[in-house]
Design a protein that fits this description.
The protein is of the alpha+beta class. 37% of the residues lie in helices and 21% in strands. The protein is built from 9 helices and 15 strands. The strands form 4 sheets. A 5-stranded mixed beta sheet has the order 7-8-6-1-15. A 4-stranded antiparallel beta sheet has the order 2-5-9-10. A 4-stranded antiparallel beta sheet has the order 12-13-11-14. Strand 3 and strand 4 form a beta hairpin. Helix 1 packs parallel to helix 2, helix 1 packs antiparallel against helix 3 and helix 2 crosses helix 3. The relative contact order is 0.20. The site of ligand DP6 has 14 residues, from helix 5. This is diphosphomevalonate decarboxylase. Keywords: ATP-binding, Lipid biosynthesis, Lipid metabolism, Lyase, Nucleotide-binding. Its EC number is 4.1.1.33. It comes from Dyella nitratireducens.
Length: 342
């Protein structure tokens, strides 16, 4: 039987949701409050369409611990993070029982493809419904943020801004939609250059950067201007303006992280080769730009007319293992539990 949500006739506290990864165009890097996971800067992203995480959350009255299966395996460190996230929901619902969580990604996990963004957005979305919590999308975004910053943005689809917020308790540091995916349906080619898990995760990388990089304050001081340029570019559907501010933000974030001690070098040779190829295409007039997160995969964002040419150029680059292709998609949403199948 398909179960869309919530407590069914048998009284089960169970729900499943799907969320997609997002890719930051104006990057989040750095925390002003580690416990609440508040960022030092705002950020702007696009939510993807055909990569997804599907998660089934089933709370079990009488069960003490959480039992977690991610792509059919269990991992202690991941289970700990998921328990911390579910605790936020349990506190709100006033319950203390454990959950059985099954989650599946259709893309490589933890290799700089924002699996924590789609993962925690899907977990919060499903968990809240399983517990019959009536949370607004902004509240879900706030809770997802506490579990992984970028997850705040995957609650929404299309073009999304995660605002810095002013309040010390972080309740206003949430994501908000800027523009629907179909209002400006750009495409994204993802060049997979490694399937290994990254060596230094984002959280550790950000902490190291804040403690040791001499560029931290310049990063913070210049972000508001970048956000403003990107917002205007998105509103005006100005591809060239978005291309230039996005590559600038990406390279600036990596320069900041490269200057940490020891330096954080997330790229491999193929990543750099792909950057050159994207720039060469743009010089020939092809509407495409790149962005890279805390991992070696390169994401090339382009107008739909350019996608085949962009994919061919990336596929041909030495060291590229595969090229995925996706449009922009919706935010987190309910699915039937039997769609998870993990
Ligand atoms: C480079 O959201 O994974 O992808 O909040 O510590 O879980 P935590 O970090 P995370 O960091 C993402 C960093 C980034 C840039 C971005 O997505 O804005």
């Amino acid at each position: 039987m398909n179960r869309e949500s919530r407590t069914d006739a048998s009284g089960e506290l169970r729900a499943a949701s799907q969320a997609q990864p997002n890719i930051a165009l104006i990057k989040y890097w750095g925390k002003r409050d580690v416990a609440l996971n508040l960022p030092v800067v705002g950020s702007i992203s696009i939510t993807l369409e055909s990569l997804w995480t599907r998660t089934d959350v089933h709370f079990m009255p009488g069960q003490k611990d959480d039992r977690v299966s991610l792509n059919g395996r269990s991992d202690q460190a991941e289970t700990k993070r998921i328990t911390k996230c579910l605790d936020l929901l349990r506190t709100r619902a006033g319950v203390d029982y454990g959950a059985n969580v099954a989650s599946r990604n259709n893309f490589p996990t933890a290799a700089g493809l924002a699996s924590s963004a789609s993962g925690f957005a899907a977990l919060v979305h499903a968990g809240a419904r399983a517990l019959n919590l009536d949370l607004s999308l902004e509240e879900q975004s706030m809770l997802a943020r506490r579990c992984s910053g970028s997850a705040a943005r995957s609650i929404f689809g299309g073009y999304v801004e995660w605002v810095h917020g002013k309040l010390a308790d972080g309740t206003d540091s949430v994501a908000r939609p800027l523009l629907d995916a179909n209002a400006w349906p750009l495409r994204v080619a993802v060049a997979i250059t490694s399937t290994a898990a990254k060596q230094v995760g984002s959280t550790e990388g950000m902490n190291r950067t804040a403690e040791t990089s001499p560029y931290q304050s310049a990063w913070i001081d210049t972000q508001e201007a970048d956000l403003s340029v990107a917002r205007d570019a998105i509103r005006a559907r100005d591809f060239d303006a978005l291309a230039s501010i996005s590559e600038y933000s990406c390279l600036k974030m990596h320069a900041l992280a490269l200057a940490a001690q020891p330096g954080l070098l997330y790229w491999n040779g193929a990543t750099v080769e792909c950057m050159h190829r994207v720039r060469a295409l743009r010089q020939q007039g092809v509407p495409v730009f790149f962005t890279v997160d805390a991992g070696p995969q390169l994401k090339a964002v382009c107008e739909p007319s350019a996608i085949e040419q962009v994919k061919a150029a990336l596929r041909d680059a030495p060291g590229v293992l595969d090229v995925l292709d996706t449009g922009l998609g919706e935010g987190a949403r309910a699915i039937a539990t039997d769609l998870v199948g993990a």
